[in-house]
Specification:
Number of strands: 0
Radius of gyration: 16 Å
Shape: globular
Organism: Heyndrickxia coagulans
Distance between the termini: 41 Å
Protein name: Cytoplasmic protein
Structural class: mainly alpha
Order of helices and strands: HHHHHHH
Helix content: 55-70%
């Protein structure tokens, strides 16, 4: 049985975890967005860039699928054993954005993910093989699991990271 019993439950969890995550960044000064602290492996801007990267990958997989393109996961030029390089591409893409812009982009992309979830019927969302991209790995996860692993789960994990970062900075 899936973790979520309904589309609404998944949307509610995405909405809740996204808000808790992104609200942590509202007290961070733009001058500190690229500062590393001991014990935290990413800067605040990298934490948001990571989320934006995965949100946009899911959206691009879906768009490519709709256009009949062969979807390459995780991304063209990156394999599952080179996620570090993929993450660096996320950081580079958003490196010049202010914390305010990153927050705005994050909120916009979460909204797009919620719209995407709403567009699926229950069989597509909770069944095997709902999309070619969801079946592209040996795990053959249903779409809900891909979305959970790339939204709810990291939103919670990275909320812990940003809270630790803020504590170390005295914010």
């Amino acid at each position: 049985m899936p973790k979520y019993e309904s589309k609404k439950a998944l949307i509610d969890e995405i909405t809740k975890s996204a808000k808790l995550f992104i609200d942590e960044f509202r007290s961070i000064n733009n001058l500190d967005k690229d500062v590393f602290v001991n014990g935290v492996d990413r800067t605040p801007s990298q934490m948001i860039a990571y989320q934006l990267g995965w949100l946009n990958l899911i959206l691009s997989w879906e768009q490519d699928n709709k256009e009949g393109k062969n979807v390459i996961t995780p991304a063209p030029d990156y394999k599952w054993n080179n996620l570090g390089g993929l993450y660096q591409s996320f950081y580079d893409k958003y490196a010049n954005d202010s914390i305010e812009t990153l927050i705005e982009l994050f909120n916009q992309d979460v909204h797009k993910i919620i719209q995407l979830v709403e567009s699926y019927n229950d069989q597509e969302l909770f069944g095997q093989g709902g999309r070619q991209w969801a079946s592209s790995t040996p795990s053959n996860w249903p779409i809900w699991k891909w979305i959970h692993i790339n939204t709810v789960a990291p939103f919670k994990t990275f909320r812990t990271k940003i809270r630790k970062w803020k504590k170390m900075k005295g914010i």
